[in-house]
Amino acid sequence: MGIVVDVSTNNPLMNRPVRRPEVLAKRRPGIDYDGLPSSLAETAIEPGDPGYPRVRSNYLRGGAPGLVLLPRDVPEVVDALSFARRHPHLPLGIRSGGHGVSGRSTNDGGLVIDLRRLNTVEVLDRETRLVRIGPGARWKEVAAALRPYGWALGSGDYGGVGVGGLATAGGIGFLSRRHGLTIDHLRAVELVLADGSIVRAGQDEHPDLFWAVRGAGANFGIVTSFEFQVDEVTDVGWAQLALDAADPAGFLLRFGEAAANAPRETTAFLLMGPPRRGRPAVAQVMAMVASADPDVVVEQLRPFAAISALYQQQVVIAPYADVIDNAPDDDHHGQGEPVSRSAFVREITPAFAAAAERLLRSGVVYFFQLRSVGGAVADVAPDATAYPHREAGFQLTAMGIDAKRMDRLWDEVREHFDGLYLSFETDTRPQRLADAFPPPTLDRLRELKRRYDPDNVFRDNFNIDPRTDTSFRDIA
Predict the structure, then answer these.
(1) Do 54 and 108 belong together in one domain?
(2) Whether residues 240 and 227 fall in one domain
(3) Domain boundary at 213, 232, 251, which?
(4) Rounded Cα gap, residues 34 and 41, in angstroms
(5) Residue 299: which domain range?
(6) Sheet with strand 365-372: strands edge to edge
(7) What does DSSP assign to residue 12?
């Protein structure tokens, strides 16, 4: 691919790639490649370009987009969105770090606006711990930038996740029970709306939009910067435990009791898989104690270590940034189509534990994770943000390979669920909106969608369609 310099007019010089015929032959139908704005032409990546394998997929999902746009600043984001609006017939993915379990930041034959170059982390005010973060930064980069100040911002469990998706959906992480969700630290966002206008949304500016962005942000625009008030965080206690799980239902009951009764300084995640013939059944507990005092750490971890026979343990006192630095710097190269289901549960009851054991023994589910919430998450009123599931005790994610079998099993245990977390859900049936948002929240979101995105430009990530009055209340 070469560069040609256009000097035939008095217009500013434009650098546009010149692609060989065999590259042009891989262009997808329905895309006006030659009409791409000059601001984006130099960095855009087509299916035949050498860099295409680096940007086509995300962490789990294999993608084949027709064009990936890589804006370098806010005006170029506006240009990219304008180009996308000229292609309403095509899928449109908005990508930050590209990790998203839902896989919705890539597609087949459509457009992707990839925000990886908007990745700065800037301290705005040291007194109030106010920082501005670009959507394309990954959370391990954020943690590393905040570490010299003795600060941290809770952010899921994997440092390779991008800021943009998590910070508009919720953000359930290892500090959640002590410091709340990631969205609870948001103070303002800069947003490119569907019509290309740039707005700032916060408590005093566009407060309705700010409410919606915190929990359903993918429906309302492209966030180009986030302003967070971060926490002072000392070193933390970090534990990884491997325990006997030969009795899955009993183990779940004991884990649920330990997690629910833990002080809010402690947030625990549980990972289980299907039993394997000839191998011991092992559950992994990962827990963070928001304290650097070894005695406090040991005391708060003791109930988890006592759940069952302990095969292995590792407990350290470490900076939060070291714990979340658990992802490579590589691009994502997912393959296939992820099948993931998400739910909230209020507590681990015997009936839920038995149902979960059936899921694990079915052979359909290969990944089963429970994240403990509550604590500071529940301090926020359910209607204060578009994330309404404040009273849940646990968030559940299960992954499989066969979507039909997963749906059948999942629907059988749905009576135990109380909501859904958007980031981990790949089921695109519209009924899932009723799981994600209770009626008052969904009605309010749909009204805002009519106001801010009446043409439904942002429709490829858990879409709230403004053109329908159906709330799905009776068909979930």
Answers:
(1) yes
(2) no
(3) 232
(4) 9
(5) 236-318
(6) 310-318, 236-244, 282-289, 266-272, 365-372, 394-400, 339-345
(7) P
Same domain, 128 and 224: yes
pLDDT of residue 469: 61
- What is the SS3 assignment for 126? coil
Q: Is 412 left (phi over 0), alpha (psi -120 to 50) or beta?
A: alpha
> Judging by beta carbons within 10 Å of its beta carbon (0-12, 13-18, 19+), is residue 241 exposed, middle or buried?
buried
Q: What is the pLDDT of residue 15?
A: 66
Q: Is 203 helix (H, G, I), strand (E, B) or coil?
A: coil
DSSP structural state of residue 331: P
Shared-domain flag, residues 197 and 125: yes
Give the Cα separation of 410 and 132 in Å (integer): 39
Cβ–Cβ < 8 Å for 98, 105: yes
Q: Quick check: 97 and 116 in contact, CB under 8 A?
A: yes
- Whether the pLDDT of residue 3 is over 70: the answer is no
Token pair in block for residue 340: 């993931």
Domain CATH code at residue 139: 3.30.465.10
Q: How confident is the model at residue 6 (pLDDT cuts 50, 70, 90)?
A: very low
* 207-216 vs 439-452: helix crossing angle, rounded to 10: 120
CA 315 to chain centre: 27
Query: Does 331 fall in a domain?
Result: no
Identify the H or E element spanning 244: strand 236-244
Please state, for a pLDDT cut of 70, what percent of the chain lies above it.
95
Same domain, 108 and 153: no
Q: Is the pLDDT of residue 5 over 70?
A: no
Residue 14 pLDDT: 53
Total domains present in the chain: 3
Q: Say which CATH number the domain at 26 has.
A: 3.30.43.10
| 186 and 223 fall within a common domain | yes
Q: Are 63 and 127 in contact (CB under 8 A)?
A: no
Measure the CA–CA gap between 161 and 347, rounded to whole angstroms.
28
Q: Is residue 367 part of a domain?
A: no
Segment 274-292, tens digit of pLDDT: 988 888 899 999 999 999 9
Q: What is the Cα 345 distance to its own chain's centre?
A: 19
- The 3-state DSSP composition of the chain as helix, strand, coil percent (nearest 5) reads 30, 25, 45
Q: What is the mean pLDDT of residues 417-446?
A: 93
Of 430 and 68, which is predicted with more confidence? 68
Phi, psi angle pair for 147, to nearest 5°: -55, -45
Whether residue 158 lies inside any domain: the answer is yes
pLDDT reported for residue 318: 98
3-state secondary structure at position 265: coil
Q: How far apart are CA 438 and CA 442, in angstroms?
A: 6
